[in-house]
Amino acid sequence: xxxxxxxxxxxxxxxxxxxxxxxxxxxxxxxxxxxxxxxxxxxxxxxxxxxxxxxxxxxxxxxxxxxxxxxxxxxxxxxxxxxxxxxxxxxxxxxxxxxxxxxxxxxxxxxxxxxxxxxxxxxxxxxxxxxxxxxxxxxxxxxxxxxxxxxxxxxxxxxxxxxxxxxxxxxxxxxxxxxxxxxxxxxxxxxxxxxxxxxxxxxxxxxxxxxxxxxxxxxxxxxxxxxxxxxxx
Length: 233
Known about the structure:
The chain is an alpha/beta fold. It is 40% helix and 23% strand. β4 (114-119), α6 and β5 (140-143) form a beta-alpha-beta unit.
């Protein structure tokens, strides 16, 4: 069955942006990256590669990293749901770290927040921008790896609300987060961390006062920092 005209236009736009961000021609992009579909989770739509496993295979064969960004993981969906149930006030400044397909950013932007969604993968940046567009919300998307470019994010902030879904999966990330995250949140603001109950998250949370909404698969943790907070309480 042929693709509908809107999906063809979406794929064409994505292909051009992906190629530009990678610095290659469209013909050099992995086919699975452009075999896309539009899906819905909760009240939000997202566009993603139709087969994550095929994309992972093609990227691995080319020596590129696993495209973890290219599917909606439970923590991102859970964080989007939490924001849907308790949306930020209009005008809230929001930063999402490691946004992937940016579903939490979409929900925040729909509530009237001023959103900056960031990811260290250029492909994620392109898809996140299109996810914003298909949901008809405004937001900024930027290629920023928070583990490497934290100072640049601090310079853009502080932010009223910082969002992070499943980013504490290595000890290096936990240590980097403990140093950086308090510097990103404005006085009176908060950090929301969604995590699939990893041990690393417990190490991070043990360093700060926090509230937790536990779940069997994903827990949502809320942290607030005093002005000038450092990496430990």
